[in-house]
């Protein structure tokens, strides 16, 4: 085939952008762990600056609250697991102590 005989590829038309309702539905239906919606609070861009509007400051505070709340829930689960592990280890230790007392008699 020569370049003159090649057919031109017709690209499909660009889709319409989503409506505000569709965007809001996607945001509400997203998981809390979705990387698109997570905030990294260690970055310098998350610091307040004097030229920020009150709305921007409130938004930053809201993001901070949501992130801290999420971390607290994770820590609560981790603490429960560790607490259960310590209780189990304590029961085992009590059993070993009883065995030692019996064998010492």
TrEMBL record:
It holds the Pfam family UPF0449. Belongs to the UPF0449 family. This is Chromosome 19 open reading frame 25. It comes from Leptobrachium leishanense. The lineage of its organism: Eukaryota, Metazoa, Chordata, Craniata, Vertebrata.
């Amino acid at each position: 085939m020569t370049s003159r005989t090649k057919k031109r590829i017709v690209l499909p038309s660009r889709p319409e952008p989503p409506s505000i309702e569709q965007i809001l539905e996607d945001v509400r239906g997203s998981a809390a762990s979705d990387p698109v919606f997570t905030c990294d609070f260690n970055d310098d861009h998350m610091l307040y600056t004097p030229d920020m509007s009150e709305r921007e400051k409130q938004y930053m505070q809201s993001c901070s609250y949501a992130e801290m709340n999420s971390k607290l829930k994770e820590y609560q689960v981790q603490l429960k697991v560790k607490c259960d592990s310590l209780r189990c280890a304590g029961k085992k230790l009590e059993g070993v102590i009883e065995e030692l007392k019996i064998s010492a008699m």
